[in-house]
């Protein structure tokens, strides 16, 4: 796992098409903005989806 420190307004780039921006840091919460192509499914880790549900909500390739 890569661990990075970022300040508000700073960005991370994943590959050529995904950008994560630290929008706000307040107490123990961090607000992130995620820019990704529409064919990339972005889910919170705590959302444990069954494979068939993930396929149903993902755009058709």
From TrEMBL:
Domain of life, per lineage: Bacteria
Keyword Transmembrane: no
Main localization (coarse): cytoplasm
InterPro entries, alphabetized: CsrA, CsrA_sf
Molecular-function GO term, any one: mRNA 5'-UTR binding
Keywords on record: Bacterial flagellum biogenesis, Cytoplasm, Repressor, RNA-binding, Translation regulation
Alphabetical GO biological process terms: bacterial-type flagellum organization; mRNA catabolic process; negative regulation of translational initiation; regulation of bacterial-type flagellum assembly; regulation of carbohydrate metabolic process
SUPFAM superfamilies tied to this protein: CsrA-like
Record-level GO cellular component terms: cytosol
Keyword match RNA-binding: yes
Compartments, record wording: Cytoplasm
One Pfam family per UniProt: CsrA
Protein purpose: A translational regulator that binds mRNA to regulate translation initiation and/or mRNA stability. Usually binds in the 5'-UTR at or near the Shine-Dalgarno sequence preventing ribosome-binding, thus repressing translation. Its main target seems to be the major flagellin gene, while its function is anatagonized by FliW.
Entries under HAMAP family matching the protein: CsrA
Assembly and interaction partners: Homodimer; the beta-strands of each monomer intercalate to form a hydrophobic core, while the alpha-helices form wings that extend away from the core.
Family indicated by similarity: Belongs to the CsrA/RsmA family.
Name this polypeptide is given: Translational regulator CsrA
Species of the source: Blastopirellula marina DSM 3645
């Amino acid at each position: 796992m890569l661990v990075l420190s970022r300040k508000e307004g700073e960005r991370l780039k994943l590959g050529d098409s995904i950008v994560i921006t630290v929008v706000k840091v307040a107490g123990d919460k961090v607000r992130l903005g995620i820019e990704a192509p529409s064919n990339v499914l972005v889910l919170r880790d705590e959302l444990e989806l069954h494979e068939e549900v993930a396929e149903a909500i993902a755009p058709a390739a």
